[in-house]
Amino acid sequence: MTKSEAKDILTSMTKGESLLRHARSVELVMEAYGKHFGEDAEEWAVTGMLHDADYEAYPEEHPNRIVKMLRDMGEEKIAHAISAHYTKWNVPYETKLDKALLACDELTGFIIACCQVRPEGVVGLTPKSVKKKLKQKSFAAKVERDEIQTGVDLLEVDLTEHIQFIINVLNEHKEELKIG
């Protein structure tokens, strides 16, 4: 599946600016990680883009709608990763793609939240600052910190380096994402 095809699916189900920005930011981070790990960067980007595609239109069925659609299209690897992007769904983590999506989803959203409360946005944001905010349970209270840690553990990356990787990607696209 191409990014263009994926974008058509995303925009057919998602209209909200915030969720579209989340999809785009996770897409960019996943694409960068795909390149970093020597994987299919477009496949990784599509996975990031579509992981919450059905959330706005079908919140009670998320992620089953998008997973079924992808499976019907023969995109099993992407479908499986999306079906596993929340640990409480009890889906096994079989590939690096599965683990990376879990590791990037919540944390990317959290880092965007950090950017939104800083006058300079992502510019100058450090892992130390993000980690400090992670300890504040009242900040971005809906972000599940245990999901972030499980993702980091499964992907076998250092939390500080992982945060810096995401910051770097977001910084490259700060104008588009309106965070800098």
Can you characterise this structure?
It contains 10 helices and no strands. It is an all-alpha fold. It has one domain. The protein is globular, with a radius of gyration of 15 Å. The model has no long low-confidence stretch (mean pLDDT 97).
Can I get a quick summary?
The chain has helices at residues 3-13, 17-36, 41-50, 64-72, 76-83, 96-116, 127-135, 145-155, 159-172, 174-177. The protein is mainly α and 180 residues long.
Task: Supply database-style keywords.
hydrolase activity, 180 residues, 0% strand, hydrolase, single chain, mainly alpha, HD_domain
Question: Into which percentage range does the β-strand content fall?
Answer: under 5%
Helix content: 55-70%
Tell me the number of strands: 0
What can be said about the biggest beta sheet?
none
Poorly predicted ranges (pLDDT <50, ≥5 residues)? none
The total domain count is: 1
Instruction: Note the overall shape.
Output: globular
Topology:
Blueprint (H helix, E strand, L loop, with lengths): L2 H11 L3 H20 L4 H10 L13 H9 L3 H8 L12 H21 L10 H9 L9 H11 L3 H14 L1 H4 L3
Protein name: Metal dependent phosphohydrolase
GO molecular function: hydrolase activity
InterPro entries: HD_domain
